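User: Structure tokens for this complex, please. No commentary.
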Amino acid sequence: MQEKPSIDIDRSKGDFHYETDYAYDAGLGLSEKTVNYIADVKEEDDWIRDFRLKALRIFQEKPLPTHWASEDLLSINFDKIRYYLSKGQQPSRTWEEVPDDIKKTFERLGIPEQERKFLAGVEAQFDSEAAYSRMKDNLAKDGVIFVGSTEGLMKHPEIFRKFFGKVIPTGDNKFSALNSAVFSGGSFIYIPPGVKVKQPLQAYFRINAENFGQFERTLIIADEGAEVTYMEGCTAPKFETTTLHSAVVELVALKGAKIQYITVQNWSNNVFNLVTKRGLAEEEAEIRWIDCNIGSRLTMKYPGVILKGRKARGEVLSIALAGDGQHQDTGAKMIHAADETSSNIIAKSISLGTGRSSYRGLVHIPKHLKNCKNNTECDALLINSNSRTDTYPAIDVRGERNSVQHEASVSKVSAEQIFYMQQRGLSEAEAMSLSVNGFINDLVREFPMEYSVELKRLIELEMEGSVG
Amino acid sequence: MNALNIQDLNVNIEGKPILKNFSLTVPKGEVHALMGPNGTGKSTLAKALAGHEAYEITGGKALLDGADLVGLEPDEIARAGLFMAFQYPSEIPGVSIANFIRAAIQARLPEGENLQATAYYKELYDKMDALAIDRKFTSRAVNEGFSGGEKKRCEILQMMMLKPAYAILDETDSGLDIDALKIVSQGVNAMRGPDMGTLIITHYQRLLNYIQPDKVHVMWDGRIVRSGGKELALELEEKGYDWVKEELAAATA
Amino acid sequence: MHQDTSSAPTTTQVDILSGDTFQKHQASMPSNAWMQAQQAAAWNTFKSLPMPKRTEERWRFAQTVGLSLEGYTLQDKPADAEAILAQSAHLEDYAGRLIFADGHLLAKDAISEELAAQGVLWLSLEEALHSKPELLERYLFSLSTQLGSDKFEALGRAYARAGSILYVPKDVQVKSPFVAYHWASQEGASIFPQTLIIAETTSQVSLVDFYLSASGAPALACGSSHVHAGPGAKVFRKSIQNWSRKTHSFQSDTHTTERDAELYSLAVHLGGEYARFENDVEITGAGSHAKLYSLTVADDKQMFDQRSLQRHQAPNATSDLLYKNALCDTAKTIFSGMICVGKQAQQTDAYQTNRNLLLNPSAEAISLPGLEIEANDVKCSHGSTSGQIDESELFYMLARGIPKPVAQKLLTFGFFEEVIAKVDDPALADNLRLMVEEKFATREH
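Assistant:
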């Protein structure tokens, strides 16, 4: 049987690069000097600077987690990365004001068009800083805040400081510490009580420079009864050298609030994508992560929900596609901390060529809790005989009338199935594409329309001769 | 020549010869029945003609309106006009019947031409009604969780939608109750006409009560040993396959 | 029954961690150069390895802090040998029996002349060192655990003396089971049970190991068992563990299956304060078949730490694991299972199921079911559930007039029955039911 890397993902969309001049460049490598440089450029308050410096020490002390994670982490050279790059721009409120070289990039990625069509607000980040940030006027009237991370901390400390770094402590892991030391960009969002934002807010992250690390920081707070959907997309040109993306995303859903966070990750496959995402759900609140990983060289990302209030609900729906040479190490964490909380995890992965997909999960129900439920399903599809999949769940249950169910399965697209479809006149590639889409179909349905179309387009697969 | 013309076909499975100089011609516009006991190579013929890679064609030709099918990919054979109704249709999780048939029709359209969705759905619903398939089935995954009868009706539905020049029905009648058998037969009869040649592979004479064949062939040990009119099927039903076996033994003795 | 009345070895209550003790142990072993070298090497390995830490993946969630090897000693033959022998009677019918206590052979029931004539060997480890050293050299200690207990396995090997060696030649089928008893009796005793089963081509055999305590005294057990199932052989190995509540136990099993072999492993865990059970099955032969069952009843502050590995290295093989745990009080169980399917192991069917029944809000069940799949044409799945007695089942029974405690008990025993039903020996199955009931009965007082 063929072992050729028969399926390729369309990554051409983001694979271009326009020359850009930067006014601020923290240079290569990471030290106290780098951190101070960033704090200086951003004119941050002292407490933020101290927060950063403390995080840097934690980052430096913590070893890489290679005792359980991929050894590929060792190939990141932290001294060969630039930790801050910007033109020194304030985010523009109209596309006309965005510098031409940057505007060209986002136009080519179709962001202004999407904004017109179906978004309530957009933030477009170019390397370290947002180039464009705008939301619909009516949202501002309702009291919605949608700003960059630095602006959020400086202008609205009473709202953001309370939760900043609380859902994900700096020392949670080495990469959350790294982000805490050098974070720049990302969105700080506050939805006032009862406000239901109908259309999604979107952030688009663009890495443009080589040898660069992007470290955006996002904090979304939905006050009591508020609702919001946030979507993020990302691309980078394909460079020869490695690029690092290490974000921290914290969500807070107060009583009865709902937050839906959608990611379609399509980094080029020189990017290490090491992201920490966690939400805190208060009483009867709901947090839902829809996480789709298609790009990058190595992704390590396990979105989690701390179910802190009674009847809180958490959900992770995850799709991972690991192509040749890629490792999608994804999963979910559900920390139950109140009675009658429920969580649901559905993870589907597809491994093709030498791709490897891993699921890591954590479900924790401590002993004082009652009537909690978790359901986890992991399904892996292997396309080629050299593809690989792993499943590493950890389930820890105590308490009364709690129930936890975990099921995982591994399957392949069978040769008989492909033959049947070919007999109806479909080419082998079309047959394979239908089968793969069929495998993830029920999950893709959960995506907002615009994104499910995007996702299907991304999985336009070129798979002649790939059954094997 | 407008026919499915199989000449001296030899097929091996895992090196073992199953079809031995098999020859048969089904002219367009006719319905032929191929009968025979289990293990004589009937299904092998169907799978080999459809281009399944496990069936190795070691010699002979299979001409579809004069063009040889041997060596083509399964989908090329299908698009050339040969449809096979499977004895055991595959289940395809997550792919709805409507999308599946649509993709199959789209694959037959010239580059750049798109299927008209409204006309497609109208035709699909008409044919589903004719086959007494609930319209809700359009959104169900192909064959997943279907009963035996539902699977076979779904095969006939696909045949009616794809309108092949030739069709091979591999044991389509097995596992059907009498009502389902009638519905399936109606579907096949509705397709009957000058534009299609049909080969019905069956173990039982029963199906031929509902679909009148123009010719009946009896298969034994990898080739056809007797051909005749529809009365041959009745004779077989009466005397059993042993009769053929004895006749064959007498003839070769 | 032949009672062993030979004079006791010279080891009298000496600390197992001291080099002197080990030297004396070596001196008392039958003089076999291979074994002497093996044990010396194992001792060095034991000494060089650190105690495991919870941060190691293979010890994730384990309570490693209180684990200590201090204070355990090698013991003389216990004085209560007669009582122990009388209690070693769970099976009515057996092909051969070995009874060890505190590491010493107390008695042996040899095999029938008929079996001996067919070439079956049933020997204590010490006997085998004298009469079949070549067999031991080939198979004993030939595989090491990959599941984390390297240090304890090494300690067990260094002090290995009590052990059963079973060899079944080609085509020989032994109907009745073999039985081995490993008793811990005296205060602070340390025992190191070894089991080795070699089943040659298309042979058939079963063996039951009992790991029991004759008193409530603290003890340490570091044991290993190894089944080598030859081509087409069928082996059923059961182990029944009911140590005293002050015993720490580390059992590392490593099994291999050759082409078309069938291996059944069934383990019942009732006793111990901390009991770790590692079950590592290496599927080296195409078309072979491994079934792994385990049943654990945990109460009080007991901690059962179970790690399993189904290693598929050959195509067309199947493996199926079912581990069931029932937890009372503040007991804790860990199930950490892994199915590894190598590139060459196409057409593998591998399954893994862990069911935890939580009978008390403070009990803790941890489940780590894992898959690592490198072949694509495979069917693999795992399932894990943790929960209480099904409310609707309970209600159904109450609605029939059954009192709640009775209904709970019935449902709990129903939970165990799935595993007990796999025991092919009715007498043993009944004994297991009794042992489980006894454990529950003592809880009710």
